[in-house]
Amino acid sequence: QPKRKAAFGSVGRRIPYRILHVINQDGESLGNMHRSEALRLMDERGLKLVLLRENVEPPVYRLMTGQQIHEEQLKLAEKKKASPKPGVVQKELSFSSAIAKNDLDTKIKQIAQWIEKKHHVKVTIRQAK
Fold this sequence. Notes:
One of its GO terms (molecular function) is ribosome binding. It is built from 3 helices and 6 strands, in the order E-E-H-E-E-H-E-H-E. The chain is α/β, with parallel strands linked by helices. It has 2 domains: 19-82, Translation initiation factor 3 (IF-3), N-terminal domain (Ubiquitin-like (UB roll), Roll), CATH 3.10.20; 90-126, Translation initiation factor 3 (IF-3), C-terminal domain (Translation Initiation Factor IF3), CATH 3.30.110. It is rod-shaped, with a radius of gyration of 26 Å.
């Protein structure tokens, strides 16, 4: 069973870095500190250390409550849902100008479903002979 990537980086006690930049739960910077000092602070306040930015020197961690972590995960999930999917899907439909009414109604329903799913729809009508 593959591990799912968490919405945040590491949460808790396993911190691979020696020096961290720590932010408290109110968003105020506590400055750079050693890993052991950050863990001590985490234990004293009953909070969790959450990795925010890993690609900076030193990596940025934030002290958060379980409730704050949960709220951030919900926000990220909403953003992910709302973001457009990579590569726009284009649906194409073509039919003759002599199409029967029932067939036309069916195709209109299909087009409406595609539009609800935010697909781009291209309709081509061929002239009947």
